Amino acid sequence: METTSRVGADGAPSTVTAEGVPTARRTVDGYLQAPFPWYGLDEAFAGPRWLMQVGTAADGTVQHGSTGHGDEPSVRSDASAEKERFAVVVTVAASPVRHSGDGTGVLDATTVSSAAWLAGSGLLAYTWPPQLDHMLRDDWLDQQTETAFELADDLGNAPWSTLSLPVDGVPVEFHYRESEFGWVLAGSAHNGVHIGAYGRGMSAYGLGFSVIADIEAYS
Fold it and tell me: Compositionally biased, Basic and acidic residues: which spans (predicted)?
């Protein structure tokens, strides 16, 4: 993908315990080091808020990260996981094609497709069809992640549609798709970041996004 690097996909949970539950990296330090503002659901959302993790470049620069809202999702192979109600907001720093910090290569641009990829892979990290056992889950996840990567590179066509949601009080057009696992959306804010989001059990149609005034309140 020209605009999205798989290397950046560490914005989705990647550390999994033996029980299949992602190990949260909840330190606020990485968030405080970011040179861009973080986004979350706006003040209309009154439920729990919590940190997830940040993704960094090879030189340690923070490039993206996620904040959670609602029930903290878990990877479970039973039907109870479907009752979880959550929305995760992914903030991605917008940047052009650029040289790597060590000067040995070129880093991909980050675009709305980058946000869509991170959101799509993030949703998959918490999805485990009940009929799959531990042995088959890795194959399933690889296959579905490849599909999410391809979908993020083709935002203008089905299954994507458009959805207008407020960002800092201003209507913004998002790319939106649904699946049997939940929903994914991606768009751009007006201050140099792209926003991705994914969720389950909460409708995306009533959401709004705003800059997080105090990221430490999520920890």
Answer: 69-80
